[in-house]
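Sanity check

After download, print the first record. It should look like this:
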Amino acid sequence: MTTAQVAPPAQRGAVFRIVAGIGTLPGLVAPFLTGHLIDTAGTAAVGYTTAFLVAGAVMLMTGACALTAIRPERDAQGLGLDAGPQP
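Expected C-alpha cells:
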C-alpha cells in the first residue's frame, strides 16, 4: 500500500517485484535460524524460548523502524507525485 502511493505508476510493477523478492528472504532464513537456536540450546524448551524471543525482538525493531521511516505523503512530495486521497 505504501509503495503504491510513492512509486510512479510506470514503475510500480518493477518496485513490487523487488519488494516481493526481499519479502521472501526472511522465509528462507527464519527456519534455518530457528532450527539452529533449538539445536544448540541445552534443551528444546530453552531453544524454543530463545527463538521466540529473537523473533519478537526482530518484529519490535522492524516495527519501530517502519513507524519512524515510512511517511508516504512526504516521500510523494519529494518525488513530485500527487499524494492526494486514493480510491
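If your output differs, re-run the checksum step. Summary of this record's structure: The chain has a mean pLDDT of 81.
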